[in-house]
Amino acid sequence: xxxxxxxxxxxxxxxxxxxxxxxxxxxxxxxxxxxxxxxxxxxxxxxxxxxxxxxxxxxxxxxxxxxxxxxxxxxxxxxxxxxxxxxxxxxxxxxxxxxxxxxxxxxxxxxxxxxxxxxxxxxxxxxxxxxxxxxxxxxxxxxxxxxxxxxxxx
Length: 154
Hints:
Layout: H1 7-10, H2 12-27, H3 32-46, H4 49-61, H5 66-70, H6 83-96, H7 98-101, H8 105-114, H9 117-139, H10 150-153
Helix pairs in contact: 2-9, 3-4, 3-6, 3-9, 6-8, 6-9
């Protein structure tokens, strides 16, 4: 599969806006490990090979446990995730599959038990952002494989 076009070059202002939202998410105070899990899980659901490649590499660079990456697609059955992470993953799935789930009260209630209001809004921004990147990368066929984590480039 070939890349369709260079979206960053064709719409630099839009790309900069996405980068700014992405930077907000990175700086919002949520745990990096939790953000990695959210990004990987949404990307799995959306079938975004580029983002799965990127975010698994970033998670590994931040010393995420391999089993937690491998079993993320089966997080409900795997014992490796905290209650807070489970609430975040359920929230991620509900928002990513919005047309199917309509974000049930049970997912909201569980998320509110584990996150204060600001954290829940910031988690939602994280899910919105990765879903946006997934849609851009899938639409324009961003190619997986070449990405290197910043920690591995330094």
